[in-house]
Design a protein that fits this description.
Length: 106
Amino acid sequence: MEKDQLFNFRQPLVTAAGIILGFVLNFATELVKRDRKSDVIAWFILIFTLIGITLLIISLYRILNNRYNRENADKSYNKTLNYFLAGVIFSFIGGLLKMAHTLFLS
């Protein structure tokens, strides 16, 4: 059996993804507990947040999946890292939109 080349990268990415997903899911539950549901900016916030959650879950699956091409482990990890960073960015944009909406429009 070949050595797992992503072993040293797996645990930190899983930990980071888990922590960020916990915060984002808590944020998303607070978002849906609103009185007004017809706000257009709320839909943008929801879309960015859901895209972020989806990308974080995809990156979590990819890093935990042990069936990857061992010859191209670096490419596999880079693609997983790109999914992870995109998920963080989309989630962060959703949070920034929510803060701006609360601060300026509510």
